[in-house]
Specification:
Strand order of the largest sheet of chain B: 8-10-7-11-9-12-13
Distance between the termini of chain B: 54 Å
Radius of gyration of chain A: 16 Å
CATH superfamily of chain A: Class I glutamine amidotransferase (GATase) domain
Number of helices of chain A: 5
Structural class of chain A: alpha/beta
Number of helices of chain B: 26
CATH superfamily of one domain in chain B: PurM-like C-terminal domain
Largest interface: A-B, 30 and 32 residues
Largest sheet of chain A: 9 strands, mixed
Radius of gyration of chain B: 26 Å
Structural class of chain B: alpha+beta
CATH topology of one domain in chain B: Phosphoribosyl-aminoimidazole Synthetase, Chain A, domain 2
CATH architecture of chain A: 3-Layer(aba) Sandwich
Oligomer: heterodimer
Helix content of chain B: 25-40%
Shape of chain A: globular
Strand content of chain B: 15-25%
CATH topology of chain A: Rossmann fold
CATH architecture of one domain in chain B: Alpha-Beta Complex
CATH class of chain A: Alpha Beta
Shape of chain B: globular
Strand order of the largest sheet of chain A: 2-1-3-4-11-10-9-6-7
Strand content of chain A: 25-35%
Number of domains of chain A: 1
Number of strands of chain B: 28
Number of strands of chain A: 11
Order of helices and strands of chain A: EHEEHEHEEEEHEEEH
Helix content of chain A: 10-25%
CATH class of one domain in chain B: Alpha Beta
């Protein structure tokens, strides 16, 4: 019985299909979750995918965080449900205050698509336990509002408590504070990542297969839990 | 006071602003003959947009017939010219629909929204065929890169395409970017979209079944884009909007279009759609006339039922509005509740505005009063057809006599290197990364190749590896020198680009960008180009499945170079065997396929080093192009190639440098003849290939059997491009020449 991994579709979500494919390829069972249904359908982990939910109206993720499905995800996350927010999903988790900080416009004021290297700083989360601390991955960055911001005190605290999930290696592509590419909640189960691991699961269609580990990790994490 | 049908019949002498709307005296008189009375304001609006050049193709139709007349036999064409987009069967139960279209004038007026809505429009054409859009491409042409106005237009256009395409979740898999003074006041923005469907799911723009309901869904209708298709003066239609200025550029909302896509696909899957049309140029006027004419039926519409963003709009304005993100469907009465429920689930506004009738007339009312009563075909199909005079200008002979062979050439290897670096750095040939990295290429997870490879390649079936390849190409310089040959060269280049990735070319789309059809010289260029394309497609065995004509790309007397942009679609049996542009791993043997002669007419070298445009373009040999393509496709199927790159602008010099940079490997090369000719001539029908170790004999045999000349050039490896006896240039130098140009100009 493979692990049920929920993937939410909001109006305007784009990389839901790719997240489902990644979860499937890793050995899990992807379960589509509709934004309008307050029903997690018994999943054991949830992915908020990339895209332009609600057209990025108001602020990226500002409207999605109020979707009926989020009314189920937020309390579940607070009691340990593994949640991965990718790109727009990361923005939604910040808006929902499940993660600290916020995402703003790239320093270059333009959308950029680029193959980039990130370094895993915390390989103890349910989404990264298949990696080693310090491991460098080649994944895809594609965003217009990917610059992570948080005040100095918050950043220092995150670093001290091991809440920096990953940093950009070999150059900061978008002006993120502290080169932060991803963060994890204090409890360790909610993860936000700006680059897209689901686009690095097969060298045929992406720069590497380095991203598959995110989706494999959670399967073993759930089994171990 | 509304101008009703009754009022029109009763007031035959009332003056109407038909000239300001772009209609000639003769055209206006013909409307009177068709109706047996003067048209109402609303009817006049319909004819003014539907009979505009953009919608009626009145200057081009008689020539475009050649595409059908000379069409090569094909068993795969499911929908062709005249439909929203061409559709071809690619096997394994899949069909592909694709088309390229222009949005030139709006993009000059308002670059961001003009380009954005250009993407939106072509995507809806694909959606209207019953397909899921899966990728986009764009071919862009601007004035000189360092001109102030280019700095106004280019970044806005690229942002607009990025904004709209990325938000829709469509990977941008390729295109072109060119610069030439002739496009300074007339940039060309040609957008392509490709979609996938099952053959049984093909939809047509036909309103059939009397009693079936007409549903308008998508965005509400506003005053944007009025005058987009025709000329709109400030003369009002007698409604309440006296002299109000209406913006003529449409405004796009890609989020609404994304919802519209998902909503339509659910409607199609639930089989709730009898016929469907997208609303583009000429909005409701176009959709209703085309659906009714297509169905050979009639239609009755309540214009006051159209959901509005601006309540002050009158019937004529509603008819002409080009508000974006709207579709019109024909739905059986029983299916209407299910249709509306799916739209509600996706938050897409949907309204029943009328029904199909048996009258053979398009009848529209405004608050109960008839304001339109016309035969729909008279607007949609039977518009004016002109036979514009075409006259070869005397200047062609002057151009042809200006032979670039007399231009001063580099005296030695150092000179050759200088010219190579100059070509690599020129905006037209320089790296386009600054532009292409603003586009999402990864979304949907099926993109196998995108920029800078020779064609965009997308996987269609994850199990079997079935996929498609697409390339767009155009060359205004060649076409100015000889529109017939230049068009065939563009076709050949796109065809060659598709084959270079290992895909078998299958079908063609085209966007024909020209100056004013009222200029006999432009009309000559146009007729030659169409003839060239029709003949070329026949010779290559790939039919034209659809496309677009954009006239009036000129400012005062200065027309653009004739610029047909040709898109070729090919099929990969297995995308895992797609061949990348590059030199392969170090040690790969490099071969040059095809024949080289001294051919500099319209070349990048002549333009860059001497500012010269003259002589004759390279010779066309379509039989040789077919043979070369056959070799490239077969070699890919048999896994013989580690890399392949077609030769085009800048000849072998640029192709070698690009391939080195793509692979991150240098090469040691010995040129097979006069170094200058080998490096900078732009003879067609050539490709640079890297052979897999051990496959050299097989490839040579393949070439010999096909009659394709193949000469050994050298070997990939090292970190310099070393041209024996001439020069040696480091990858670093190639890279700085190539990569910095656009960022320095536009960042």
């Amino acid at each position: 019985m493979s692990t049920r991994v929920g993937v939410v579709t909001f109006p305007g979500s784009l990389d839901d299909r790719d997240a489902c494919r990644a979860a499937q390829l890793a050995g899990g069972q992807p379960v589509p979750l509709w934004h309008g249904d307050a029903d997690l359908r018994g999943v054991e982990a949830v992915i908020l995918p990339g895209g332009f939910s609600y057209g990025d109206y108001l602020r990226c993720g500002a409207i999605a965080r109020f979707a009926p499905v989020m009314a189920e995800i937020i309390p579940a996350a607070r009691v340990g449900l593994p949640v991965l927010g990718i790109c727009n999903g990361f923005q939604i988790l910040c808006e929902a205050h499940l993660l600290p900080g916020a995402l703003t416009r790239n320093a270059g004021r333009r959308f950029i698509t680029r193959d980039i290297q990130i370094r895993v700083e915390n390989a103890q989360t349910p989404w990264t336990r298949d990696y080693a601390d310090g491991q460098e991955l080649t994944v895809v960055l594609k965003s217009g509002e990917g610059a992570y911001v948080a005040d100095e005190a918050t950043l220092a605290g995150l670093a001290a408590r091991g809440q920096i999930l990953a940093r950009y290696a070999g150059g900061n592509p978008n002006g993120s504070a502290g080169n932060v590419a991803g963060v994890v909640s204090e409890a360790g189960n909610v993860v936000g990542l700006m680059p897209h691991p689901e686009h690095a699961i097969d060298p045929l269609t992406g720069p590497s297969a380095d991203g598959l580990g995110f989706f494999a990790s959670v399967l073993s994490a759930v089994v171990a839990a | 006071m509304n101008d009703t049908v009754t009022a029109a019949a009763a007031t035959p002498d009332r003056g109407q602003p038909y000239a300001a709307l772009g209609l000639t005296d003769a055209e206006f008189a013909r409307i009177g003959d068709i109706l047996g009375r003067r048209p109402t304001d609303a009817e006049l609006a319909i004819y003014s947009v539907m009979w505009s050049e953009h919608c009626s193709y009145k200057s081009s139709r008689r020539h475009l017939r050649q595409f059908a007349e000379k069409a090569p036999p094909t068993r795969v064409l499911l929908a062709g010219i005249g439909e929203n987009a061409g559709v071809v069967d690619i096997g394994q139960g899949y069909a592909i629909t694709f088309k390229i279209e222009s949005h030139n004038h709006p993009s000059y007026v308002e670059p961001f929204q003009g380009a954005a809505t250009g993407v939106g429009g072509i995507v809806r054409d694909i959606l209207a065929m019953g397909a899921r859009p899966i990728a986009v491409m764009d071919a862009l042409r601007f004035g000189p890169a360092d001109a102030p106005d280019t700095r106004r237009v280019l970044p806005g256009v690229v942002s607009g395409i990025s904004f709209y395409g990325n938000c829709l979740g469509l990977p941008n898999i390729g295109g072109e970017l060119a610069f030439d003074p002739c496009y300074a006041g007339n940039p060309l923005i040609n957008a392509l979209c490709v979609g996938v469907l099952r053959p049984a799911g093909l939809k047509h723009a036909t309103a059939t079944g009397p009693g079936n309901q007409v549903i308008l869904f998508g965005s509400r209708t506003g005053p944007d884009g009025i005058g987009g298709a025709s000329v709109l003066a400030s003369a009002s239609f007698g409604g309440r909007g006296e002299g109000a200025k209406r913006p003529s550029v449409q405004v796009g909302d890609p989020f609404m279009e994304k919802l519209l896509i998902e909503c339509c696909l659910e409607l199609f899957a639930a089989d709730l759609v009898v016929g469907i049309q997208d609303l583009g140029a000429a909005g409701v006027a176009c959709a209703t006339t085309e659906l009714a004419a297509g169905g050979k039926s009639g239609m009755s519409v309540r214009l006051d039922a159209v959901p509005l963003r601006d309540a002050s709009l009158g019937p004529a304005e509603i008819l002409m509005s080009e508000s974006q993100e709207r579709m019109m469907a024909i739905v059986t009465p029983d299916d209407v509740p299910a249709f509306l429920a799916i739209c509600a689930r996706w938050d897409v506004p949907a309204t029943v505005i009328g029904e199909v009738t048996e009258t053979g007339r398009l009848e529209m009312t405004w608050h109960g009063e008839p304001v339109v009563d016309i035969p729909p075909g008279s607007a949609a199909d039977d518009g004016p057809v002109y036979d514009r005079p075409a006259r070869r200008p005397a200047s062609q002979d002057v151009l042809a006599a200006d032979d670039p062979a007399r231009l001063a050439r580099p005296a030695n290897g150092a000179g050759l290197q200088t010219d190579l670096l100059a070509l690599l750095a020129v905006p037209e040939a320089a790296s386009k990364t600054w532009v292409t990295e603003q586009y999402d290429r990864y979304v949907r997870g099926d993109t196998v190749l995108a920029m800078p490879h020779d064609a965009g390649v997308v996987r269609i079936d994850e199990e079997t590896g079935l996929g498609i390849a697409l390339a767009t190409d155009g060359n205004g310089r060649y076409c100015l020198l000889d529109p017939y040959a230049g068009t065939q060269l563009a076709l050949a280049e796109a065809y060659r680009n598709v084959a270079a990735t290992g895909a078998r070319p299958l079908a063609v789309t085209n966007c024909l960008n020209f100056g004013s059809p009222e200029d006999p010289a432009v009309m000559w260029q146009f007729t030659e180009a169409v003839r060239g394309l029709a003949d070329g497609c026949q010779a290559l065995g790939v039919p034209v499945t659809g496309g677009n004509v954009s006239f009036y790309n000129q400012t005062a007397a200065a027309a653009i170079h004739p610029t047909p942009v040709i898109g070729v679609l090919g099929v990969h049996d297995d995308v895992r065997r797609a061949v990348r542009s590059g030199l392969g791993p170090p040690g790969s043997a490099l071969l040059l396929l095809g024949s080289t002669r001294l051919e500099l007419g319209g070349s990048l070298w002549a333009r860059t080093v001497h500012g010269h445009l003259g002589g004759r373009p390279p010779a066309v040999d379509l039989a040789a192009e077919r043979s070369l393509a056959e070799v490239l496709v077969t070699a890919a199927e048999r896994g013989l190639l580690a890399g392949a790159h077609d030769l085009s602008d800048g000849g072998l010099a640029v192709a070698l440098a690009e391939a080195c940079l793509a692979s991150g490997t240098g090469a040691a090369v010995t040129l097979p003849g006069d170094p200058f000719t080998c490096l900078f001539s732009e003879s067609a029908g050539r490709a640079l290939v890297a052979v897999r170790p051990g496959a050299e004999a097989a490839l040579t045999q393949l070439c010999a059997a096909a009659g394709v000349p193949a000469v050994a050039l050298g070997t990939a490896g090292g970190d310099t491009l070393d041209v024996a006896g001439s020069f040696s240039v480091s990858l670093g130098e190639l890279s700085s020449a190539h990569l910095d140009t656009l960022p320095v100009l536009f960042a």
